[in-house]
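User: Second chain of the day. Same drill as before.
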Amino acid sequence: MAVVITSVTAGSPAAKAGVRAGESLHAINGHAINDALDYGFYCYERTLTLDLGSRTVKVRKRDDYDDIGLNFETYLMDKKLSCRNKCVFCFIDQLPPGMRETLYFKDDDSRLSFLQGSYITLTNMTDSDIERIIKMKLNVNVSVHTTDPVLRQKMLCNRFAGDVLRYLGQMAEGGITMNCQIVLCRGWNDGEHLKRTLSDLTALYPAVQSIAVVPFGATRYREGLPQIALHNKSSASEALDIIESFGERMISEHGERVVYPADELFITAERELPPCEYYGSFDQYENGVGMWSYLRDGFIEELDSCEPDELPRTLTIATGALAAPLMKQLCTLLCAKFPGCRISVRAISNSFFGETITVAGLVTGRDLTAQLAPLSAELGERVLIPKVMLKADEDVFLDDMTLGDVSDRLGVPVIAVGEEPYELIDAVLGLSGE
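Assistant: Same format as last time:
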């Protein structure tokens, strides 16, 4: 497959070699180029022969890692692969109508797993895809959920979902490192099924370097979808006991925990969240594993280094219902050191997706304004929200309201705060420059 070159970066090795926009790249050093992975892998030499169809061009780089300067229509150089499954727990199937179109796209693309850290189910893959991953030494993230082939077919609603589990072993034998996740559905893949899955995956260590167990979340838009009960204190406690037993065994045998529960399981089970040391290298941080411990422990450490004062500060912190009690604990510590601070922590109930959704990252602009506007006289100088409420690199909420829209409606500045502990302290103390 030839890939059209849309532009050539000025001054780049390709530009110096005379490559022109509009030409088609067929191969590099005799290797066919079909997508971004081929391009990146076969560009890793100082001298390259580009097959442009009608001619060949030699490109020379000063360093193996230099970009040769070719640009293409899309990031992957072709279309993203969409998911072939209809998982019983799929969050996208539970979205309300009328949201921006991109939110409804389900990707299941191994290339994005390597390039961006997304998770794949393996059902979109062939033997040749696995061979390429092994050849290129591409580490991947895999949504496993269960290693029982029959149950996996049922949960993913895909007749191939059980058969492709063999790829896990093939990748492990090929030296590929994998991070795996299990979306834990009460009454489906918990209990003995969870034990089997963890047993099978930990047997692939060190190829499987981490496993995250994340509880199923339900919106109010599940009409026509399979019934799955939400986790309660009892079921979360049972799951934690299983996860902890495997984690302790892996520490005993290999010196690493490997198996980690999501923060939400600890909170639902009403158990103390562990210290940062528990999470090792935080391999599953983006899966909600260790986020709160990272913030809490870092916050306390940063706070200890702050010089106290009694300057008056009045503000509101708005977050999801799950994190609100934990945020109140941190604010109590901060106010003890800064007596002039008056901080109100507001738990935002999720009317948009349903009150069973309690994470901060799914709070919308309209829920913020609806619940905070009646309190406008009590909000103080500013409102702080976690940056995870916004689209990456943009000041836009999931419902397409902007940060500016919310600020205007509340009549005070609304400031999005990053995940680093010092960012929260600086924002509260007015040191962030916002």
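Residues 233-254 form the longest helix (22 residues).

User: Great, on to the next one.
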